[in-house]
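Lecture 7, part B: from sequences to assemblies.

Below are the input chains for today's worked example.
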Amino acid sequence: MEPKAIFDLLTAHLGEGAAEYRENDIESWACVSVARIADACRFLRDTEGLEFGQLMCLSGIDWDGYDENGKGKSVAILGYEADGTPETSDRVADGELGVAYHLYSHTCDHKFTLRLRFPRDKATVPTVSDIWSTARWHEREAWDLMGIRFEGHPDPRRILLSEDWVGHPLRKDYQMPDQWLNVPLRGQPYANNPFAPADDAPAGDDTPAEG
Amino acid sequence: MATNDTRLTGWADQDHVPGLKSELLELNMGPQHPATHGVLRLLLHTDGEIVYKVTPVVGYLHRCAEKIAEGVDYKQWVVYTDRFDYLGPVTNNHAYVTAVEKLTELEVPARAEHLRVVTAELSRIASHLIALATFGLDMGAWTPLLYCFREREVILNLLERIAGGRMLYNYMVPGGVRYDLPQDNWVSDVLEFVTMLENKKLPDYNTLLTYNKIFIERTSDVAIIDRETAIDYGCTGPVLRGSGVQFDCRRNDPYSIYPQLDFEIPVGKGEMGTVGDCWDRYIVRVREIEQSCRIIRQALEQLPEGPVHAIELKKPVRVPAGAAYSRTEAAKGELGHYIISDGGTKPFRNKVRSCSFCNLQVIEKVGVGQMVSDLVAFVGSLDIVLGEIDR
Amino acid sequence: MEAMYTFFMDKAGMGELGAHITVAAIMASLMFIVMALCAIIFTWMERKVAGFLQSRYGPMRTGRWHGWAQAVADMLKILGKEDIIPAEADKGLFVFAPLLVLLGSLLAWAAIPWAPDFVAADLDLGLFYIFAVSSLVVIGILMAGWASNNKWSLYGAARGAAQMVSYEIPLALAAIPVVMYTGSLNTQDIVIAQQGGIWNWFFLRNPFLFVAFIMYFIASIAETNRGPFDMPETESELVSGYHTEYTGMRFAFFFLAEYANLFLVSMIAVMIFLGGWWSPIPGLDFAPALTFIIKGVIMVFMNMWVRWTLPRVRVDQLMHLCWKVMIPITLICVIGAGLWMMASGAAS
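Predicted structure of the full complex, as structure tokens:
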């Protein structure tokens, strides 16, 4: 089935105003409102003729700094200066966050894309992990790396980073911390190094051994 | 997760031995373990030999390649794709460059497409050889490991002659491949290897391991993933095909020159037990090696002349604004890239949908009720690689 | 043996008790030296056999010719390792376990007949004594697994205990038809009853005895925790099973005990089924001890061949194999061998 036809069935179920269709040569998508996404996904999975049984991919996206005109310079992330100090910028990240759902049906052999956008400070989305079980880990990763909360998720913990990590690395305004559990993260020497030689130790010979 | 919890609480509430307090044994198949293929941690709750809850803990190999993608050029990031599935790296390259080319209007030369397919299929064979070898090793068969590595050594040498690296290649670029064929008889060496693999080595492995009674007893009817569970959990690749679903990105969502090539998609039929057991996933991989040999032979016979890349290697690649999800069949399953470009030379967002990430999740459901030895067999049959899961 | 007793009593002037003690001490040291030698030689042989089966060479450098000194080098290395006892481990049991495991196999070596009239302990209960004493190994394994304070070691120990105790039954049952033929449990008598060339060896005397030989071979692989039955020490699941936490000399004891056990069960197989020290061609018995050892080495090679070819059997399948397959077969062998004996009039 063509994406437009799928979209028409979807709007017929959700009602007017819940979703918009964005046409594109390469990949068209439906822009759904955040409150109705779980409903939309359930409809797409359970309706005969649509039968989207597989969620191929659930991606978290940070739209801050995106150039709608296609002239982006992709410099939205903050990096480091030459001497290792972090770059600072007066610009405060204010772009929206988004989630993209890519669905596939094995029985009907068609694909569909859904996208959400929501403001940065209201980054909560209903979960779809009760619709497709694969979403459990995808949503955990979106929380971990992007900071998007999923309401109703049975196990909302970080998955790829350590439990006590602070921050969400894939955000455009993410600043790498100075250290984590006393491990220096910016190339600076260890503080309180238990293996450092004593101050009055003789200078060692660093040449490699013979043979 | 819900089913696991009721089972756990159900176990704890039962009166197993009257008068004695019983607990499940909490066991850590830790990040350093000979059987978990990489730094994977499995937290098990067991009652004797039966496992009641499996929790995989991943992230020990997380390098945040997706963040790095936003800081480097499209061409430069190909190097990072090698490091995902480091056992079959060329297929990862292929997935990424196909995704980038979907957004651009680059015409990949025919010679480059053929070379891409040949090297990708060689990499797929290399990855499957390791899958067979380590699966046998988990079962206690030490000898097939050495035999498979002997064959993989030949592949690594062939790929070193064309790409320069033994294990990690950085061979493809958006718009073609980096290097043309070496000036020696590479093509005839590949054909000779493929013939030897098909006629002598695979029958050897089948006699030694595949149809061995003990191996069949260990793997048939073990850890059965049925069709609905596989699709629901997003499993792809040999895991999905072992459960009887005929789906292969090379056939169902074709890319490159695969539509012109003639090959079959092996599917698990439950020959030795039930559809979707460990043996089915294993035999799908063995048969895929045979099919890859067919593909390599055809691609080399039809190899046309011409350039090998459509871009200038010294200049950055500029991709017009747009967003697309593109998937290809990597060695372990469906490897997808959702690339969002804003018109610059670096991606705005590059989400990697890796096959092992989705395949591993199924262990939370199917691992319940297995014995510890069967769990080891199950993890071996899923054929996960942590570089891909953690990126 | 008689010569040694008369030597010590007459020539050296000791009393009977003194002669017995001296001879016992000499035999015990000899057994210990042979056991240590066999551990070293079989380690090397295992690595070479494994190498050639896997289409590679194995050790080639230490000692120039096919790496024969590799095992010696390994032993020296192990002796130099740090002895670590885990902090929470039960120290007494931890230290005693490897000794018990070694003891279990070494005690059984006493009743093996190497040559006519050359056996350390000429017991009328020889075969029974061997099977009884080699059960001590089970206790040692359980102690090692428990004392390590490691859940994986406990798994390995529990599996090992279950496996070894179960497989002792088909092991002993397979030996019973032999005892029926010989009419005695004395190990010397069992070997003497097989004189007269290869067709008189017990494994070819009657088809039930041949099946019993196969059953004995399989059960012996399970008794030594090797090959397809190495569940207690599966490297890919339990890291190392019950001897995970052992290092240095203590680990060397387990190692030594494994190869001593391996040679022991091979020698028992040779003794009760393959003719002991008799050569296959009647009349060519000029080096009985050497023949016995060569046959033992051949059986060890068969054991290694099986180990490096076959994958591992799972615990419940292992138990099923023992209780539901091997025990009925061996029982049938016992009955069948008895009936055959009656029918062919060979009952002694």
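Note for the exam: The longest strand of chain C covers residues 113-115. Keep this in mind when comparing with the next example.
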